[in-house]
């Protein structure tokens, strides 16, 4: 189970505290599957008997608030595909993916493979000096593709700067994502063309934009939904808490999709929270759940569920996709300074692409020809990305002044003219030679 | 319905109220949001009656979280709305400063012009009302320093009415500083008069000996200074800048080329204040016209003092006259 992985890390708190107990449970080797039925009754009894019990003990209410049945006090993980590629039955979430055809399964696989290929190409391009920086999504493909493929065209996405897989699902040309990392622009696509907002670098800010946008959707009487992506680090930001508050108060049709990749640069999730992140939703009055972030099918299912709630006027949902940042935070980061390789190795065994491949093969949903063709397509994409990036020209100097304002600004005009005169002075000097 | 009539005696706060009413009435995309703006009508009653007439979905009482107010307003603007948000007091804008500076100001540029954020942030500002801490500050320079924002401040009811109309129509985010101590000052407001452009200064009073430049709450003071100086035979020109970003340097230059002397007055601290920018640029533009260095009168480089001391902190008639005398002595 994915939850086991945290065992590799140091214990967070002294024994006896509620959070410590939660943490300890997370590190047990008991699978969530086994634990849930056993715990359910006890916990439900406890919760009603002792209302003043600690937050950690009352954890099952995380789902209660949304009107669905209570869950175990320990973090429960929605998983439909095991790391070995076995399909796990789940009465609650199976209906959301029961109609997924073999072709669609292959599509999800293709999305993840091409996204990973694109990502690897971008990392290489940074190493070659073609990009100034790259934030790799390696390891998070299932969370992004699963949630991204749950969306409708009229839904709106507010990403961080690592949602390359979601961008792919939205039909944003991946080469457009690279402009800001190359330094030729600060966002190279029209957000409204694909209902995919610009990458947001100030952590957590976009959660409020998503909430406001969702408030607007509700005002318009539309049944579109909005999804806000952020990470475990962002969950500490005030803006994320305020987004939770506003979306709850206004019952906004927004899904908060938190990819808990365990690390906010060098800080483990324990530095952000003493409760599992999905349980934060409880205090704001809407449901939260944890999904195996490396299981594309489970991410598709829970996101569809959350989007359906949004469309039905049931308000916000928090999804915590429990995953792992396999690479560095960005190409400027050095993870060897703060984490051990064995942790990464443990997660490699739960690789999102590998597990879907195992499933495709065992279910006979794909043959060798499919994988071979995808390999070719993948190489073609890599080549196209390489060529596109190398062909990206530096913008004209005057782009500095463009679009600073929509309606213009006298000072910008004045400074542009001064800059032009300054530039022209070089031309004069050259001409004089 | 918004009527097009002339109001003989309308308070500045009421003028903004009428302007918001007109905007809500004529554009279904306009929203008013903020803390206590609904039933209460705002702590200064600027939004009085608007929720009653336009409903809770257009005049929105928000949770008490300024970053949330501005952040969700950005999202609403992305959806096609034109939110006018109220920050209850000047000193409370800082939780929203991040959203304003890193998001609101930059979205148009970083989207290469694809995204426009027509958000108006209303901030009652300035001292002189005997308030407690954080209720009397003048942070306009902190916003004028940020590219992508426009910063304006009306000095009278008529400007308040029209500048609000123009701010709402602007496709750029506008930080709208309302001179709270002038909220109850009355003036004639003609809702038919076609206004001049938003970001132009206006000569309030013509003069020949020295130019006084101000905006917002200090315009009235400068007019009083000009009256007092006139008794001593000095002819002062008073310029109401109305806009802090962009600044109408052409208007200041034209005045200074005539009077050759300039004193800038604002409540905000002088250090790195708008007066510093005006002094620098006017010195550059009018170097050979100036008979004296540009002088500034404003707050000190100290936290805004307790109410019992604010009269000593804020520019008043004598302090401005003192600066006028010093300028004329060159």
From TrEMBL, chain B:
All copies of domain Transketolase-like pyrimidine-binding, residue ranges: 10-185
SUPFAM superfamilies to which the protein is assigned, alphabetical: Thiamin diphosphate-binding fold (THDP-binding), TK C-terminal domain-like
Gene3D superfamilies recorded: 3.40.50.920, 3.40.50.970
Cofactor: thiamine diphosphate
Keywords: Oxidoreductase, Thiamine pyrophosphate
Pfam families, sorted: Transket_pyr, Transketolase_C
SMART domains per record: Transket_pyr
Top-level taxonomic group: Bacteria
Matching InterPro entries: THDP-binding (IPR029061), Transketo_C/PFOR_II (IPR009014), Transketolase-like_Pyr-bd (IPR005475), Transketolase_C (IPR033248)
The name this protein goes by in its record: Alpha-ketoacid dehydrogenase subunit beta
């Amino acid at each position: 189970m994915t939850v086991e992985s945290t065992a590799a890390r140091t214990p967070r708190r002294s024994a006896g505290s509620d959070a410590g107990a939660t943490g300890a449970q997370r590190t047990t080797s008991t699978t969530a599957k086994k634990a849930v039925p056993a715990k359910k009754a006890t916990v439900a009894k406890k919760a009603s008997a002792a209302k003043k019990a600690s937050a950690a003990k009352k954890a099952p209410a995380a789902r209660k608030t949304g009107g669905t049945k209570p869950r175990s006090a320990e973090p429960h993980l929605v998983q439909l595909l095991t790391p070995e590629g076995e399909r796990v039955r789940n009465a609650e979430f199976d209906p959301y993916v029961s109609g997924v055809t073999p072709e669609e399964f292959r599509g999800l696989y293709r999305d993840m493979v091409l996204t990973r290929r694109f990502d690897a190409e971008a990392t290489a391009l940074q190493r070659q000096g073609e990009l100034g920086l790259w934030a790799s999504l390696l390891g998070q493909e299932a969370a992004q593709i699963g949630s991204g493929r749950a969306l409708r065209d009229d839904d709106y996405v507010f990403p961080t700067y690592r949602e390359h897989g979601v961008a792919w699902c939205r039909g944003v040309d991946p080469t457009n994502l690279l402009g800001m990392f190359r330094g030729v622009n600060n966002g190279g696509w029209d957000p409204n063309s694909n209902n995919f907002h610009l990458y947001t670098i100030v952590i957590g800010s976009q959660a409020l934009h998503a909430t406001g946008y969702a408030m607007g959707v509700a005002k318009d009487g539309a049944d579109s939904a909005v999804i806000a992506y952020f990470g475990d680090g962002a969950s500490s930001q005030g803006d994320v808490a305020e987004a939770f508050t506003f979306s709850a108060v206004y019952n906004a049709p927004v899904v908060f999709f938190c990819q808990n990749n365990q690390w906010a640069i060098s800080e483990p999730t324990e530095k952000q929270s003493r409760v599992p992140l999905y349980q934060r939703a409880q205090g704001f009055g809407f449901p939260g759940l944890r999904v195996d972030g490396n299981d594309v099918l489970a991410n598709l299912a829970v996101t569809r569920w959350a989007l359906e709630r949004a469309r039905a006027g049931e308000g916000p949902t928090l999804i915590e996709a429990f995953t792992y940042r396999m690479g560095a935070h960005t190409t400027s980061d050095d993870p060897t300074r703060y984490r051990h390789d064995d942790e990464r190795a443990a997660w490699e065994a739960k690789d999102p692409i590998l597990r879907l491949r195992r499933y495709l093969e065992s279910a006979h949903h794909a043959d060798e020809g499919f994988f071979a063709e995808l390999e070719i397509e993948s190489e073609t994409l890599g080549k196209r990305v390489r060529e596109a990036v190398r062909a990206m020209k530096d913008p004209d100097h005057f782009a500095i002044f463009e679009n600073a304002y929509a309606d213009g600004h006298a000072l910008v005009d004045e400074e542009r003219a001064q800059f032009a005169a300054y530039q022209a002075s070089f031309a004069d000097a050259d001409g004089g030679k | 319905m918004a009527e097009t009539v002339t109001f003989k005696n309308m308070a500045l706060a009421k003028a903004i109220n009428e302007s918001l009413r007109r905007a809500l009435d004529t554009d279904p995309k306009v929203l008013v949001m903020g803390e206590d703006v609904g039933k209460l009508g705002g702590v200064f009653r600027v939004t009085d009656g608007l929720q009653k007439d336009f409903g809770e979905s257009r005049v929105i009482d928000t949770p008490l979280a300024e970053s949330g107010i501005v952040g969700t307003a950005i999202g609403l603007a992305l959806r096609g709305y034109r939110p006018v948000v109220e920050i209850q007091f000047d000193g409370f804008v800082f939780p929203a400063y991040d959203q304003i500076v890193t998001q609101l100001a930059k979205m148009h540029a970083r989207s290469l012009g694809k995204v426009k954020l027509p958000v108006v942030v209303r901030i009652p500002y300035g001292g002189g009302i005997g308030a407690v801490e954080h209720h009397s500050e003048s942070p306009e320079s902190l916003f004028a320093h940020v590219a992508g924002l426009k910063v304006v401040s009306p000095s009278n009811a008529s400007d308040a009415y029209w500048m609000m109309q123009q701010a709402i129509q602007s496709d750029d985010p506008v930080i709208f500083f309302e001179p709270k101590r002038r909220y109850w000052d009355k003036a004639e407001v003609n809702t038919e008069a076609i206004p001049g452009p938003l970001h132009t200064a206006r000569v309030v009073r013509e003069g020949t000996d020295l130019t006084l430049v101000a905006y917002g709450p200090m315009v009235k003071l400068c007019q009083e200074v000009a009256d007092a100086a006139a008794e001593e035979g000095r002819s002062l020109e008073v310029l109401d800048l109305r806009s802090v970003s962009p600044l109408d340097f052409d208007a200041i230059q034209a005045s200074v080329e005539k009077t050759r002397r300039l004193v800038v007055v604002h409540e905000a601290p002088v250090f790195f204040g708008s007066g510093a920018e005006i002094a620098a640029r006017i010195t550059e533009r009018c170097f050979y016209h100036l008979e004296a260095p540009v002088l500034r009168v404003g707050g000190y480089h100290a936290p805004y003092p307790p109410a019992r001391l604010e009269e000593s902190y804020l520019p008043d008639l004598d302090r401005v006259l003192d600066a006028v005398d010093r300028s004329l002595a060159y």
